[in-house]
């Protein structure tokens, strides 16, 4: 029952989170900083109350290691959200971030000296090809935007290239953070809830450098049209409602993934998260009518098929950790 409940949380939380993020970004493309700050603040407060026990519970992993992890996590979060302000459409944003396997493999080979089977190299080639196709076709769409002069068109394309560079940087940084986490957990044991709290609490002072931008968007949000929240009947600016729902659904998504990791194998978790991304992508295309050609569909299929090939989820689908433990006892 718990795995099914967790899957429901992941799909409901993560998919709706993407919807509210796109609603925010479509109205104010530069709102990434205030969105990131709100998410970090909410999760930090929740963790301070329930995980850190109001600061009375000492961390299992030394703070100096969290400081390194937090620097990377903060950078990745800010850069990923800011990329939406650089002519990056939400579908491309989701597809590009789905390429984390490539970055993980590359850095795993370089840093951890890992070696992989030819099957996994093939799957990574599929993912790479899919991302390249989607990126290339998106580049063509940027260059042929209607209503833009040659100068404005070139400027839009230049900003788009900067957005691609930002996403690439965030992808590699995220993979490096994953490797760092792997080494920490190997040394100190897994403390995912604790890591979640410190990863969101420690970076909060860093938002001081983004205070001006955050304040500007607070003003913009206050000026948005009023919206009456269903059921409770409270009236508030619609942008604040979108932000509130984005933060809440982000938390639901994270909690769902956490429950899933305690109940199922990592491969099953990967499958659920991958399918969730695919559903979010489809919804974004259909509901928001984002441009998506047959080439985009081909690239998307390459990305998701390659991801499923890499994880070999069909061999472990539905296997819970308790079942694995039973099998171990039999052996």
Report on this structure.
With 331 residues, this protein is an all-alpha fold. It has one domain. Helices cover 75% and strands 2% of the residues. It is built from 13 helices and 2 strands, in the order αααααααααββαααα. The protein has a two-stranded antiparallel sheet. Strand 1 and strand 2 form a beta hairpin. Helix 1 runs antiparallel to helix 10 and helix 3 packs across helix 8. The longest helix is centred in the middle third of the chain and has 39 residues. The chain starts with a helix and ends with a helix.
Q: Tally the helices.
A: 13
How would you describe the shape?
globular
Give me the count of strands: 2
**Could you name the ranges where pLDDT drops below 50 across 5 or more consecutive residues?**
327-331
Strand content: under 5%
Q: In terms of structural class, how would the helical and strand content be classed?
A: mainly alpha
Widest sheet: strand ordering = 1-2
Mean pLDDT: 82
- Element string (H = helix, E = strand): HHHHHHHHHEEHHHH
Our count of domains comes out at: 1
Please state the CA-atom Rg, rounded to the nearest Å: 21 Å
Outline of the structure:
The protein is mostly helical and 331 residues long. It has 13 helices and two strands; from the N terminus they run αααααααααββαααα. The longest helix is centred in the middle third of the chain and has 39 residues, at 150-188.
